[in-house]
Specification:
The complex is a heterodimer of chains A (122) and B (624). In chain A, 64% of the residues lie in helices and 0% in strands. With 122 residues, chain A is mainly alpha-helical. Chain B contains 18 helices and 10 strands. The chains are: A mainly alpha (122), B alpha+beta (624).
Chain lengths: 122, 624
């Protein structure tokens, strides 16, 4: 019974925030785009001409009804993958995205087996 | 003149190191447990002379002796005295000298403070530490000599990069160096422990204080760096997952893992080889970080003057270090009869280590992957904040829960944890979370989880504190402040407000609840720069709260640079952060305004976190 109550509270909790996730966030997109003429800054943090121009381009693309991913694809075709701070999941970047989780899984298994081996002994 | 003194002292240090190694080797052959008096003396002499060598360099900076290339390239006679001094370690060559100082002083302190431990172990540590010292001395002498001369002597220096002329950045490198160069001593001790078969509890005891010292300083060093980035770089953030920042974070993860596994080694005599690996890993990562930063293969905001030969030297040094430690590890490795039972404290320490290794590998991969990809496939990618956030944050949620539950477990026994209490805490956390949603409106699922799990950790740490039986104050404080740290970062990240617009003198602009007026622009002449100070009035239309912010645009002469100084007003509830920059061919100024809630608490939590380490250090010193 108690568990059901807690579960309901949790679900209500998450439901209230799922709704707000739908809106396309301009600043989030800016933060994912590297300012190509700066030293390690996103266009959100930069005032360079390049950043200003790119912000206008992003705004136009949003107004054309493009989704976040479509905007990233459009820009990476034009400027190369270097412009995206969050690398796309593709063959080349496969290891980058999966190795951390693989390590997490492997580490978990190692800990599990160390502990279980000793449970059997005792 | 100063150049000659400096060079002679460097040579002297090489000779002392060689002598220490020679005498230690001789001393090992004698079968009593006494260390030659002259080894102590030499070690003290070594620390003194390297300090004098450093003071020589400082005085060259103080009197602006431009016959030294290093001073010529990094200083200027008009620079304030404070920055002349900090300029000493604000460059590659000078900072390497700081490296050697810390290697040397730690070597001396370790020697004199561990007299309860056997002779062989101490001497082997000394020998290995001196081999490291030699490696860096050679690097300084043959590649990066701060005492190199320039002829003819220039009349004036080139000056220090203005963004480095800052009090936080003056103390940032020394703090960080005590942290990650300090880890060298337990690298040496771990090697010595394997060679002299001195292991388990006494070994853990001998290095515990050193691990704590380096951890505390590393934490503070990272904090000061972040504070600097926050107010100096003008983006309003404090952590950018920049490769150089990552380089300081990697040893921190390893140290944190080590700190926990040492507990097991000390109390339960288990995980000996794993602890050794962590000791070796910490210093290896420190050197790797230095390699990445100094060789210039990384693209980063931190610009160190680059030179490929440096990279090659450090790379050779690093490979020798790694192969020696791996070789030793393989020859000495014995499978151990560990006694880790489920649900005991040991299990949770293992879980801590498991997560630390995940963070470490993720950050390492994110830092190195672009380099390898570029070298192998010539394809350039960027790995930035959105990558780290999406990979790491979900895992942190689970980690925080373990961090709350773990300390309640007992050693050895697998007693079940009080489930009812945990559920009560969880409900409490969710209710507080509801209150936050109510006040700030809604936010994303993952932020929600972060807030709930950090509250879970905070509340259960507070429960532990209230229980009279619990005496481990340092642990409670550190875990509690880590909970608060994540909590405040979560809130800050989600509820920051950002406005970006253009304004000219006298103009008023209203955006949402804010009314901005650019009231005034004034030009001032300072000793080594000119500055334009804007006076911006910001009024919150709803609360009628009014504030005046004064951002600056600075024009430095030597070298000629423009910098933008953010104006920051801090209180306990929020920071107002504003930068102003000129727009070419226009009378308008670009204004970036941010309201960042609870910013100061992020710094306070981190200070409290490191203070937990201090407490543990004191307790450890008292017990021994």
């Amino acid at each position: 019974m108690k568990f059901k109550i807690i579960l309901t509270i949790l679900l209500v909790n998450f439901y209230s925030c799922v709704l707000s996730d739908e809106i396309i966030n301009e600043n989030k997109i800016h933060k994912n785009l590297r300012c190509l003429v700066c030293q390690g800054q996103s266009i959100s943090d930069s005032n360079s001409d390049f950043a200003i121009t790119l912000k206008i381009v992003v705004k136009d693309l949003i107004e054309q009804g493009k989704t976040e991913d479509e905007i990233y694809n459009f820009l990476s075709e034009k400027y190369g993958d270097w412009i995206l701070y969050k690398p796309k999941l593709n063959v080349v970047n496969f290891l980058l995205w999966f190795l951390p989780y693989f390590v997490l899984l492997l580490g978990g298994l190692i800990v599990f087996f160390i502990v279980r081996k000793n449970v059997k002994k005792t | 003149m100063l150049s000659n003194i400096g060079n002679s002292l460097l040579f002297l240090n090489v000779i002392i190191s060689l002598l220490i190694i020679y005498y230690s080797y001789n001393c090992l052959k004698i079968s009593n447990n006494l260390i030659f008096k002259k080894i102590y003396n030499l070690s003290l002499f070594q620390s003194t002379s390297i300090l004098i060598c450093f003071f020589t360099l400082i005085s060259a900076f103080l009197i602006s002796d431009f016959s030294l290339i290093n001073v010529y390239q990094n200083s200027h006679s008009l620079k304030p005295v404070f920055y002349k001094i900090s300029g000493t370690w604000g460059n590659h060559e000078g900072s390497l000298l700081l490296w050697v100082i810390i290697l040397t002083i730690f070597s001396f302190l370790f020697l004199i403070s561990n007299n309860k431990h056997p002779k062989d172990y101490r001497l082997y540590t000394l020998i290995i530490q001196n081999l490291l010292i030699l490696g860096f001395l050679f690097f300084i002498l043959f590649n990066s000599n701060p005492f190199g001369i320039v002829n003819p002597v220039p009349k004036e220096g080139l000056g220090l990069n203005p963004i480095l002329q800052d009090p936080a950045l003056a103390i940032h490198p020394p703090l960080l160096y005590v942290g990650f160069v300090g880890s060298s001593i337990y690298f040496s001790a771990a090697m010595a422990s394997m060679i002299s078969n001195y292991n388990d509890k006494p070994f853990a005891k001998s290095i515990k204080s050193w691990v704590l010292i380096s951890w505390v300083f590393q934490t503070l060093g990272i904090l000061v760096g972040s504070i600097w980035a926050y107010y100096e770089l003008g983006w309003g953030g404090f952590w950018f997952w920049d490769p150089v920042e990552n380089a300081s974070l990697l040893p921190w993860f390893a140290m944190t893992a080590l700190l926990h596994s040492l507990l097991v080694l000390e109390k339960r005599k288990a995980l000996y080889f794993w602890t050794i690996i962590l000791c070796l890993l910490t210093f290896t990562l420190s050197v790797t970080g230095t390699f990445l930063v100094r060789s210039g293969i990384l693209n980063s905001v931190h610009t160190f003057a680059n030179d490929p030969t440096r990279g090659i030297y450090i790379l050779i040094f690093l490979s020798i270090m790694i192969s020696a430690s791996v070789y030793l590890l393989f020859t000495k490795y014995k499978p151990e009869k560990s006694h880790v039972s489920a649900n005991s404290k040991e299990t949770f320490v293992l879980i801590n280590n498991w997560f630390m290794m995940f963070y470490l590998l993720t950050v390492l991969l994110g830092t190195l992957y672009p380099i390898f990809l570029d070298a192998l496939l010539k394809s350039k990618i960027s790995v930035g904040p959105p990558f780290y956030n999406s990979v790491i944050i979900p895992v942190v949620v689970v980690f925080l829960v373990f961090m709350a539950v773990g300390p309640q477990a007992k050693w050895i026994k697998n007693r079940f944890i009080n489930l009812k209490q945990l559920l009560a805490i969880l409900v409490g956390a969710i209710i507080i979370n509801f209150a936050i949603i109510y006040f700030f409106k809604s936010y994303s699922v993952i932020s929600n989880l972060i807030i709930i799990s950090s509250l879970f950790l905070i509340i259960s740490s507070l429960f532990d504190f209230l229980k009279k039986s619990e005496t481990n104050l340092s642990r409670i404080l550190s875990h509690l402040s880590f909970g608060f740290l994540i909590f405040f970062i979560g809130l800050n990240h989600n509820f920051s407000i950002e406005k970006d617009f253009n304004l000219k003198l006298g103009e008023t602009k209203i955006i949402d609840n804010y009314k901005f007026v650019l009231k005034d622009l004034e030009l001032y002449n300072q000793s080594n720069y000119k500055t334009i100070i804007g006076k911006l009035q910001v009024r919150n239309v709803i609360t009628n709260e009014e504030r005046i912010l004064k951002p600056e645009i600075r024009i430095y002469e030597n070298p000629q640079t423009l910098t933008y100084e953010a104006s920051i007003l801090t209180n306990f509830f929020k920071d107002h952060y504003l930068t102003m920059s000129n727009i070419d061919r226009s009378e308008y100024y670009n204004i970036k305004f941010q309201e960042k809630p609870l910013m100061i608490w992020i710094w306070i939590s981190t200070i409290a976190l490191s203070f937990g380490g201090f407490l543990s250090l004191f307790r450890n010193a008292k017990n021994n």
